[in-house]
Amino acid sequence: MTGTAFTDFRTPRSVLFMCRMNAIRSPMAEVIARAALPRGTYVASAGVRHGERDPFVDVVLEEIGLSIGRHQPRTLDELEDDYFDVIVTLAPEAHHVALELTRSMAVEVVYWPTPDPTVAMGTREQIVDAYRAVRDHLSALILSRLAGNGLRKGA
């Protein structure tokens, strides 16, 4: 973890998930967090670079009753708001950019290393399994570190 941890264990009021292209990991985390966090929590996602929507994200989210809706990948420059209680980075490049952007801001930056499922090879089922693993990894982290108990030290 980078930065200081929340000491009052509250659920953050606003969360930004960042990855490289806002096509897989960060939008998946955004959708899962919206479902898991209390109503009124502002959740967004963005990428360091512009990406293309990935249809496998729809497949694995629909399996757990969630939908990415009309989400289109967006960069940090395209965000409507730029203040967040916590920024969760999911890829090394995003983490470095977040640290640089928040150098003079009172915002928590947390790094959750998350594999890129696009590197998976094999059958369609093997590829979808890689996306499922990312979905399940993000769900577990969101539920254990953000939902209910808030961001905990060591997150």
TrEMBL record:
Q: Which InterPro entries match?
A: Ptyr_pPase, Ptyr_pPase_sf
Please name one Pfam family that this protein belongs to.
LMWPc
Q: Does the keyword tRNA processing apply?
A: no
What's the domain of life for this entry? Bacteria
Please list the residue ranges annotated as the Phosphotyrosine protein phosphatase I domain: 13-148
Keywords, comma-separated and alphabetical = Arsenical resistance
Protein name (record)? Protein-tyrosine-phosphatase
Q: What is the lineage of its organism?
A: Bacteria, Pseudomonadati, Pseudomonadota, Alphaproteobacteria, Hyphomicrobiales
